[in-house]
Amino acid sequence: MIAQQNDEETHLLQRPEQPTAKTPLPWDQFWILLLLEMPDFLSSGTLAPFIPQLIRDIGVTHGDESQVGHYAGILQSSYYAAHTLTIFHWSQLSDHIGRRPVILTALSAIVISMFSFGLSKSFVGLVVSRIVCGAFDPSDSMVKSMLMDITDATNMPKAYSYIPIPVMIGTSIGPLIGGSLSRPADRFPDIFGRSELMKTYPYLLPCSISAVSVSIIWLVTYIRLKESVSTTGETPLWELIKKGFLGQSYLRPRQPSSNVIVDPGEGSPGEVQPKPLPLRALLTSRVLSVTASYTTMGLFQTGYNSVLPVFYATPIELGGLSLDPSRIGALLAASGVIHGIFQLLFYAHLHDRFGAKAIFITGVSSGIPIVILFPVANALARAYGIGMAVWLCVVVQLTLKTSLVLCFPCMALFIRAAAPNRASLGTTNGIVMVVVAVARIIGPASAASVFSYSLQEGHDAWSIYYFFIAIAFLAVSTALLLPRDLSVWEDSQ
Fold first, then answer.
1. pLDDT in tens, 316-336
2. Cβ contact 292:478 at 8 Å
3. What pLDDT does 222 receive?
4. Average pLDDT, the chain
5. pLDDT of res. 69
6. Contacts of 465 by beta carbon, 8 Å cutoff, 6+ apart
7. Could you give the CA distance from residue 275 to residue 266 in angstroms, rounded to a whole number?
8. What does the pLDDT average to over 211-224?
9. Distance (Å) of CA 349 to CA 344, 352, 379
10. Among 486, 490, 491, 492, which residue's Cα sits nearest to residue 157?
11. Around 415, how many Cα atoms within 13 Å sit in the side-chain half-sphere?
């Protein structure tokens, strides 16, 4: 049996060389974390189908169709810009005040921003709504940290095999809400034709439905979710926030508490718990390797996700497929179902058979054929119209995206293994997510701008595809820095 170590440099995972049994999942809290995976996907999925049309409606492009992708990229990047400036401080704060209050704050931000988005009549108003959401929404990072808190190396892959259930619901229902309920006065004149509210704010209905759904999740979280970390309980909240945003250290020994979930791997409640490490101590080669891999993968994934609905909506003669919002919503919803079912049924088995690194490299490598299918689909649409051949390309492309989606649970395993100790898990996750958020700013903005550039007369139409393929190769290169076996990091300390 491995002796318990209390030094603050003790590695996050200490396990026997040959574990004989897997720890059961803590379902009393795990189902709430599954529910908390939904709001981000639900809200962003609701907006995706109608953003191109919304940008046309508010007139910011002045009728220039080639600029729709540019403004769509700005809109998406504004969220990640605000996210980047705050995510580390929220993550660091959660190591001291707990994950629960931060998650509740994030859900409130999503609700407010969705109502604000639906009521906005200018591009500036849309951007402000997304900035508010990004600045106060660290929910994705917090849920990942909390999931790492309540699981261990034996049951974490199994836990991530269930993540597709809420993701599938969010990515399926969100686009259906946004695609089918936008402009309700035009689409359903018998029901909403006399509503001045729906005529004045044609996108308020889908945003409101999404906001109300997240409000229900907030209520469930407030009532049922338990804290997963021991908090200091000694420093006032405002002092922690002020010190964090001013860059000051606020290290204190963490005190045991009977009101939190205690991980068996952390020892008994009576033992002195390790304390969060300062930032410099967390910048190890392992954390930097994981950060580089996650960043390049995130750069490709966010760029691709921002261009995909714009590509669908762009006229065929300009390089797209000329699809309307309802079809775009249906396609995105269907892809969410496919990805979710595959991860639910196969991820844990694939992880046990091939390991996280092999799955990750396969996922980022799939970006190359995904990109190639963009010009192939448009060429077929130009030659034969939107027929069977085009739909086959669309289906194959969205199916290939499944392997890209599997990269995310792999990254969670690498982050957990790279963290120097459990008390610094939230901050370690925050470091990675800050850099990933930067990539998510650059990804949508640069990809949408290059896409718009490629549509303009006299420019190389393949510019966007060269851009994506270069990022895919970069992602594969950084993935080679990761260990083939997580035990290399887990057992070497």
1. 888 889 888 888 888 887 887
2. yes
3. 94
4. 81
5. 77
6. 371, 372, 374, 375
7. 12
8. 95
9. 10, 5, 38
10. 486
11. 30
Report yes or no: 42 and 178 within 8 Å, Cβ to Cβ: no
For residue 4, give every residue at least 6 positions away whose Cβ sits within 8 Å of its Cβ, in sequence order, or none. 14, 267, 271
Report yes or no: 296 and 304 within 8 Å, Cβ to Cβ.
no
| Nearest one of 363, 421, 455 to 14, comparing CA atoms | 421
Three-state secondary structure string covering the chain: CCCCCCCCCCCCCCCCCCCCCCCCCCHHHHHHHHHHCHHHHHHHHHHCCCHHHHHHHHCCCCCCHHHHHHHHHHHHHHHHHHHHHHHHHHHHHHHHHCHHHHHHHHHHHHHHHHHHHHHCCCHHHHHHHHHHHHHCCCHHHHHHHHHHHHCCCCCHHHHHHHCHHHHHHHHHHHHHHHHHHCCHHHHCHHHHCCCHHHHHCCCHHHHHHHHHHHHHHHHHHHHHCCECCCCCCCCCHHHHHHHHHCCCCCCCCCCCCCCECCCHHHCCCCCCCCCCCCHHHHCCHHHHHHHHHHHHHHHHHHHHHHHHHHHHHCCHHHCCCCCCHHHHHHHHHHHHHHHHHHHHHHHHHHHHHHCHHHHHHHHHHCHHHHHHHHHHHHHHHHHHCCCHHHHHHHHHHHHHHHHHHCHHHHHHHHHHHHCCCHHHHHHHHHHHHHHHHHHHHHHHHHHHHHHHHHHCCCCCCCHHHHHHHHHHHHHHHHHCCCCCCCHHHHCCC
Cβ(134)–Cβ(79) below 8 Å:
yes
Average pLDDT over residues 415-436: 79
pLDDT per residue as tens digits for the range 181-192: 988 988 888 888
> What is the rounded CA–CA span in Å between residue 9 and residue 493?
9
Closest CA to 340 of 168, 172, 171: 168
Q: What confidence tens digit (pLDDT) does each residue in 125-180 have? A: 999 999 998 888 777 778 888 888 888 877 888 888 888 788 778 877 888 899 88
Highest mean pLDDT among 82-96, 445-459, 467-481: 467-481
Bridge partners, residue 260, by sequence: 227
Q: Which two tokens stand for residue 244?
A: 């964090």
Res 218: pLDDT: 96
pTM over 0.70: no
Q: What is the dihedral of CA 53, 57, 59, 61, to 10 degrees?
A: 10
